[in-house]
UniProtKB/TrEMBL annotation:
It comes from Stigmatella aurantiaca (strain DW4/3-1). This is Uncharacterized protein.
């Protein structure tokens, strides 16, 4: 099966634009306009990753989401220690938030 550039654009529409730009160069139809080495691609991906920032509040929110999901799963599976684990993770998240805030 062959995909057109329009197909790939449509399938990757939900990706962040920086990653889509990297993908465009990686799969460019003209060989000379592609990344010429794995190192070039690695540098582009590192630059893109460096653009991603997570604030302390975002980190806490992400951790709380993970904890809530794990607690619900543990509860469904009958694991009694979920509340204790949730408290520990919540305290860890608050500690991280305080450290970054100072």
């Amino acid at each position: 099966m062959t995909y057109t550039e329009a197909d790939v654009e449509r399938y990757t529409a939900s990706l962040p634009e920086g990653l889509r730009m990297t993908r465009r160069k990686l799969l460019h139809p003209e060989w000379e306009k592609r990344y010429q080495t794995a190192g070039e691609l690695g540098n582009a991906l590192r630059r893109w990753l460096g653009e991603l920032t997570l604030s302390p509040a975002d980190a806490v929110e992400e951790l709380e989401g993970v904890v809530n999901e794990a607690s619900a799963r543990w509860a469904r599976e009958g694991v009694e220690r979920s509340l204790s684990a949730r408290r520990k993770l919540h305290h860890s998240a608050l500690s991280i938030d305080r450290q970054r805030g100072s």
